[in-house]
Amino acid sequence: MKRPWRLLFSQILAIVWAVASVFLGWGTLCIVTGSKYPILVVTSESMEPAFQRGDLIFLWNREKIIHTGDIPVIWIPGKSLPMVHRVITINHEVQIDGHLKQMILTKGDNNGIDDSFMYLPGRPFALREEVVGLVWGYVPKVGWASLALQGGFWR
Fold first, then answer.
1. pLDDT digits over 27-48, tens only?
2. What is the dihedral of CA 74, 154, 142, 38, to 10 degrees?
3. Residue 106 class from Cβ within 10 Å (0-12 exposed, 13-18 middle, 19+ buried)?
4. Tens of pLDDT, residues 93-118
5. Out of 3.40.47.10, 2.10.109.10, 3.30.1330.90, 3.40.190.10, which CATH number does the structure's domain 39-149 have?
6. Which residues are catalytic?
7. Closest CA to 46 of 116, 110, 135
8. How far apart are CA 102 and CA 89, in angstroms?
9. Residue 82 in contact with residue 130, Cβ under 8 Å?
10. Residues contacting 100, CB < 8 A, separation 6+
């Protein structure tokens, strides 16, 4: 018969192992995808019919060049949430050091106008550095639990 303290220790160890596994899995996903946020939940209707509120999206941030038609997730400095919209225009500028600077203009599929008003003041485009990943897959409606926990279920 196990002693009570041994049973308690083994239960605590199982919980710690489960939590550590989640963090290890997340860290592995971040490394593999090249994104700090490899999985996100869509929170608005701006990309309907492609994505709806509550859809779980998977990101990949290993592409160096973004193309028109790609769907990046852009996190503008100072904004509380990222934006997932389709690229409608790309402009390139060669830097002095030879690197290519991409200036990206996006628009939600369900929006009437482009996103130039949403970027940093005085800059009517987003930069490649602000892209946390390109959408490469999604699962419909799986993220509703996350929206409910955030209080955004009824919006």
1. 999 999 999 999 999 999 999 9
2. 20
3. buried
4. 888 888 889 999 999 999 999 999 99
5. 2.10.109.10
6. 46, 85, 115
7. 110
8. 10
9. no
10. 65, 92, 93, 94
